């Protein structure tokens, strides 16, 4: 292309020189005879026609070059074309007499050359042609590890209310009695405790089109809705305040830690042992400890005077435990607080309806708008039989 382009420019330059000579000849004839000779006019017209053909080829080459490079180029224009388009030449051609003048200017051709880059803008930018590598699936945020439910007794119910009889008082007057003497009378009181089944639920609305176009989305939404139920369930089991539709959790029903058991030099580990003692004084055997992850990390990194770890061992993957009891660390427990208790016999979770996800178009104007409502819910109750076996306090 470049060689052909240069050849056309050389040919056009030669014809411009020839045209210039003919114009000078025409000017001479006009001065001498008052008119331009017919053969001179014919020669000029022939050169003009030839130049037009060369211009057409140059224009076609320039346009092809512009499309290839993605840029805009000024169209080359020869001195001959400039002269034949001038008013002086057209007047000379029409009248057949007079003088036509031409002014020649040097032309410098500079074609801007740019590098090809991944930019999406500018000359040489081919970024829009690069296809992204879309990875499959959806990246989810971290999920909380649910642990509190696993500490409790599990059960099921077919009702909306759990009832159990709880002893609320026992006056033990048992004593040695002489033969024939009156025996002492003891006293016992009981109450009926109601524990209502509560519903945990939430929903998301989506279009039928997006669920059809993204097959993974429906199962992803299903999983996220179920996780949302588990997250709230753990908070409710541990700290629900029992008001409104909230469960009454373990913390509100637990016995407060007896700070009179604490010694002057006690640390976190010692305080937990005192809480275990309080459970034991209440005639129960603690089965677990619940801590915030921050407090458990502080305990695991305790060292003796020689710099050796007391509870933690960086070289081994040990199950979290202390004083022979499993330790559960969860963000549901506030930092700086703890709970020790007989989880295996003091409370029970009753499932009325397992976590389930349902999809419906019959919600509001869903049908007319091609929308679906995706709802997740579960129903459960928490019965705390022996509140005295739970001890809750702070470090």
Care to describe what's here?
- With 395 residues, the protein is α/β, with parallel strands linked by helices.
- It has two domains: 2-109; 148-394, Major capsid protein gp5 fold (2-Layer Sandwich).
- It is built from twelve helices and twelve strands.
- The strands form three sheets. A six-stranded mixed sheet has the order 5-12-9-6-8-7.
- The radius of gyration is 48 Å and the shape is elongated.
- Mean pLDDT is 82; it is low at 70-76.
Indicate the CATH architecture of the largest domain: 2-Layer Sandwich
Question: How would you state the average pLDDT, rounded?
Answer: 82
Task: Report the radius of gyration as a whole number of Å.
Answer: 48 Å
Low-confidence runs of at least 5 consecutive residues:
70-76
Helix content: 25-40%
What is the H-and-E element order?
HHHHHEEEEHHHEHEHEEEHEHEE
Count of helical segments?
12
Order of strands in the sheet with most strands = 5-12-9-6-8-7
Characteristic terms for this protein:
395 residues; alpha/beta; Major capsid protein gp5 fold; six-stranded mixed sheet; four-stranded mixed sheet; 12 helices
Which helices and strands appear, and what pairs or packs with what?
Layout: H1 2-33, H2 38-69, H3 79-84, H4 87-95, H5 148-151, E1 153-156, E2 161-171, E3 187-196, E4 198-207, H6 208-213, H7 215-239, H8 250-253, E5 255-256, H9 268-281, E6 288-291, H10 293-300, E7 321-322, E8 325-329, E9 337-341, H11 343-346, E10 347-360, H12 366-369, E11 371-384, E12 390-394
Parallel strand pairs: 1-10, 5-12, 6-8
Antiparallel strand pairs: 2-3, 4-11, 6-9, 7-8, 9-12, 10-11
């Amino acid at each position: 292309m470049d060689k052909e382009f240069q050849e056309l420019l050389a040919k056009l330059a030669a014809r411009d020189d020839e045209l210039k000579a003919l114009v000078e000849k025409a000017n001479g004839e006009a001065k001498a005879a008052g008119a331009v000779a017919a053969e001179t006019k014919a020669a000029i017209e022939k050169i003009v026609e030839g130049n037009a053909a060369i211009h057409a080829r140059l224009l076609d080459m320039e346009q092809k070059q512009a499309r290839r490079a993605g840029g805009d180029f000024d169209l080359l224009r020869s001195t001959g074309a400039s002269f034949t388009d001038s008013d002086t030449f057209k007047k000379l051609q029409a009248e057949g007499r007079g003088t036509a003048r031409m002014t020649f200017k040097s032309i410098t051709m500079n074609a801007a050359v740019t590098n090809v880059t991944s930019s999406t803008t500018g000359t040489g930018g081919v970024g829009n042609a690069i296809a992204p590598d879309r990875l499959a699936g959806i990246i989810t945020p971290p999920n909380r590890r649910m642990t509190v439910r696993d500490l409790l007794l599990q059960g099921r119910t077919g009702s909306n209310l759990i009832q159990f009889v709880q002893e609320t008082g026992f006056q033990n007057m048992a004593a040695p009695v002489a033969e024939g003497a009156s025996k002492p009378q003891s006293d016992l009181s009981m109450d009926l405790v109601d524990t209502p089944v509560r519903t945990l639920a939430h929903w998301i609305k989506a279009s039928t089109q997006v669920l059809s176009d993204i097959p993974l989305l429906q199962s992803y939404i299903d999983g996220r809705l179920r996780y949302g139920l588990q997250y709230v369930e753990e908070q409710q089991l541990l700290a629900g305040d029992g008001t409104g539709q909230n469960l009454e959790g373990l913390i509100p029903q637990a016995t407060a830690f007896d700070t009179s058991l604490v010694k002057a030099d006690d640390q976190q580990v010692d305080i937990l042992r005192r809480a275990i003692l309080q459970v034991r004084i209440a005639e129960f055997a603690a089965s677990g400890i619940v801590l915030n992850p921050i407090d458990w990390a502080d305990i695991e990194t305790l060292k003796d005077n020689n710099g050796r770890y007391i509870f933690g061992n960086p070289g081994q993957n040990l199950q979290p435990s202390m004083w022979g009891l499993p330790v559960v660390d969860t963000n549901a427990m506030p930092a700086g607080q703890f709970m020790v208790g007989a989880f295996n016999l003091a409370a029970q979770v009753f499932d009325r309806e397992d976590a389930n996800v349902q999809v419906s178009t019959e919600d509001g104007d869903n049908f007319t708008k091609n929308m679906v409502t995706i709802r997740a819910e579960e129903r459960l109750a928490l019965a705390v039989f022996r509140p005295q076996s739970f001890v809750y306090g702070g470090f």
